Amino acid sequence: MVCTVANQRILVVDDEPTVREVVASYLQRDGYEVRELDRGDTVLETIRTFQPDLVILDIMLPGVSGMDVLRQLDHARTPVILLTARVEEPDRILGLELGADDYVTKPFSPRELVARVRTVLRRALQDPGSPDLLTFDTLTIDQKAREVCIGAGPVALTAKEFDLLVFLAGSPRQVFSRAQLLHAVWDSSPDFQDPATVTVHVRRLRSKIEPDPLAPRWITTVFGVGYRFEP
Questions:
Q1: pLDDT of 145-166, one tens digit each?
Q2: What pLDDT shows up at residue 28?
Q3: What is the predicted pLDDT for the residue at 128?
Q4: Beta-carbon contacts of residue 229 (< 8 Å; ≥ 6 apart)
Q5: Of all helices (H) and strands (E), which one includes residue 196?
Q6: Where is average pLDDT lowest: 6-10, 79-83, 153-157, 172-176?
Q7: Gap between the Cα atoms of 108 and 201, Å rounded
Q8: Cβ contacts of residue 145 below 8 Å, gap of 6+?
Q9: Other CB atoms within 10 A of residue 193 CB
Q10: Residues 20, 37, 126: CA angle, nearest 5 degrees
Q11: All domains of the chain, ordered by start, with CATH?
């Protein structure tokens, strides 16, 4: 499958008209269909009717905050890029913990934001060079359906958690640094992305697939280096 922007829909949620106008203009120039909102309390209903492929979501919104919107989203279906004026690490980590796929700190480059949109959407598509099913003992990863099961039970992952798991599981026992994972899964240089992004997603992934997240079976830490998947 080749990632194209044809018919791909982006929902831009920000209470600053200038931000919405600039972001929408750059996205439309790239061929995306864009809808804009200025409040958080209309996001979920708009997602149901507009069915966007990705949401660009400001944290500070009237009505309902971006964080509260994140708590209610089906992240497996709707990837999210956060816009935030908050530069403190706990705020960024909270957004990632709640399921955001990426974040951009204001003020930002519209070109960089569009590049991140392309990356998140591309990663949400199946990798045609990989087998549809990856099976390891009780863990099954269906890349075509983007579904994960432990035993007979399904596991609900966000789009980015799924991408991270597929990447690690695709190279069993190979160790990847946080910088390598940022580049491979987020398509981002560590200069423009916080390594804590990887740490947070690994922790969330472990909490969902590991019998004991404190003593992981599948995703192990190689101290001082990074992470690897144990088949």
A1: 889 999 878 999 998 999 999 9
A2: 93
A3: 47
A4: 165, 168, 169, 171, 172, 173, 174, 218, 219, 220
A5: helix 196-209
A6: 6-10
A7: 23
A8: none
A9: 20
A10: 85
A11: 9-123 (3.40.50.2300), 133-229 (1.10.10.10)
